[in-house]
Specification:
Elements: E1 3-8, H1 12-25, E2 28-33, E3 39-43, E4 48-55, E5 68-74, H2 81-96, H3 101-117, H4 122-132, H5 140-156, H6 168-177, H7 182-201, H8 231-238, H9 245-256, H10 261-265, E6 272-273, E7 278-281, E8 292-295, H11 298-304, H12 328-339, H13 348-360, H14 365-372, H15 382-410
Parallel strand pairs: 1-2
Antiparallel strand pairs: 2-3, 3-4, 4-5, 6-7, 7-8
Helix pairs in contact: 4-5, 5-7, 6-7, 9-11, 13-14, 14-15
Length: 411
């Protein structure tokens, strides 16, 4: 916007005169006071404000003078010309005393904002964290992070506490709550610690209390699971009686295809390419946040074809309201009761796939691991990774074909 600078002795009559002139010109008019050097009144289309410019006394390292700073004092509706000069004189006095009022004002504003931020509860900060840091759960990892923090706050009953009230004892209590479930304990502790790191970066807390938890009190690494199912047990699972038909269809599909439980439960028809006989998952749909293709065997396709793609979005609608399954404990209990396999856990089907393929075929562990879509199986970057992805896809099709043929022979 063009600006017009007018030196004058600013009084109320001058202010009124140039306010009217500004409306006619449509350009900014700046009145520079001749009584108090550095005091100005900037008049714009929608507003007007008093400012005062000064330069701190002395020199910076290197012999240069300090830069000129400008402070906003207020507007004509709250400050008359005489009051604006008085405010400017106070700033002058502070500068003569060696102060730097603009810097001091910024520090005071930051301290005030920090104090206000500290009045937000943990639950309110979690909502901010979810939006600003976790992109409102754009990926599975981000959704899991927010969920684990939310559950940790609820388990410790500190949702309405302020962040500075969180102590190392709360973290130790969180570990103790999951003493019998070390994997869950590590997930909660890790997610909560990263949430506290965020609060530390935002200067809401002075230190992350998780770092004060001794190594002895931290959650231990859980022993690796070794459970897998024999061909005879797969037959029991395949022919499970007494569970809902939707559960049985989903269970059979998970036996044929080593996806993660939530990936299978969230599968929708748009992710399946029947012509290519494959599932295509975008980065936001998988744990390691990378595009993934899962070839489908003949037996897997036959299970998928039993679904109603015309009336439902989900391939495996396991709930009445057609939303993805989340009650995995209930699902596992139903399968255990129906089959007599009392240690059944859905995730163990992935280990069953890798174990039985290794025992009954000569397929390489690399290909098997690639089909499990582990993060370490996709560590090579750039052109090489994309080249190997294309090269291995046909090999993966062959692996899934072998697995399907084994299942057809067993079940």
């Amino acid at each position: 916007m063009p600006s017009k600078i007018i030196p004058c002795k600013i009084d109320q009559r001058t202010v009124d005169k140039y306010t009217k002139e500004q409306r006619i010109l449509g350009a900014r008019i700046t009145l520079a006071d001749q009584v108090c050097s550095g005091l100005k009144l900037a008049i714009n289309n929608q507003s007007a404000s008093w400012t005062y410019a000064y330069r701190k006394r002395g020199y910076m390292d290197g012999g240069k003078r300090y830069p000129q700073r400008t402070m906003k004092l207020g507007d004509p509706s709250t400050l008359s010309p005489a009051e604006a000069r008085l405010a400017a004189e106070k700033i002058k006095a502070a500068v003569r005393s060696g102060g730097d009022p603009a810097v001091e004002e910024r520090k005071a504003t930051a301290a005030r904002q920090l104090q206000e931020a500290r009045k937000k509860s943990n639950a309110a900060w979690l909502a901010t964290y979810s939006t600003e840091q976790m992109a409102d759960g754009a990926t599975k990892y981000q959704r899991d992070e927010v969920r684990n923090v939310k559950l940790a706050l609820e388990e410790l009953a500190i949702c309405q506490f302020y962040p500075e009230e969180i102590t190392p004892k709360h973290l130790r209590n969180l570990v103790e709550l999951h003493r019998d479930r070390p994997a869950t304990g590590r997930q909660r502790f890790g997610a909560f610690s990263r949430f506290l790191d965020y609060l530390l970066d935002e200067e809401v807390i002075d230190a992350n209390p998780a770092l004060s938890v001794s190594k002895r009190s931290r959650p231990k690494t859980p022993p690796p699971r070794t459970t897998y199912y024999t061909p005879d047990q797969l037959v029991q699972l395949w022919h499970a009686q007494g569970i809902k038909p939707e559960y049985q269809r989903y269970l059979r599909f998970m036996i044929t295809t080593p996806l993660r439980a939530d990936e299978g439960a969230s599968l929708n028809w748009s992710q399946i390419d029947l012509n290519r006989a494959q599932i295509e998952l975008e980065a936001i749909d998988v744990k390691n946040s990378e595009y993934f293709v899962m070839p489908l065997s003949r037996i897997a396709l036959s299970i998928i074809s039993q679904g109603d793609g015309a009336n439902r979005s989900l391939v495996f609608p396991l709930t009445i309201i057609n939303t993805p399954m989340t009650s995995w404990s209930y699902f596992n209990k139903q399968v255990r009761a129906a089959t007599g396999i009392h240690n059944f856990i859905l995730h163990d089907l992935r280990r069953t796939f890798s174990t039985l393929m290794s025992e009954h075929t000569d397929v390489s562990e690399t290909l098997i691991d690639g089909l499990l879509n582990h993060k370490q199986s996709a560590t090579r970057g750039g052109v090489i990774r994309h080249y190997q992805h294309a090269k291995n896809l046909e090999k993966r099709r062959a692996v899934m074909k072998q697995w399907g043929e084994l299942l057809e022979a067993w079940v």
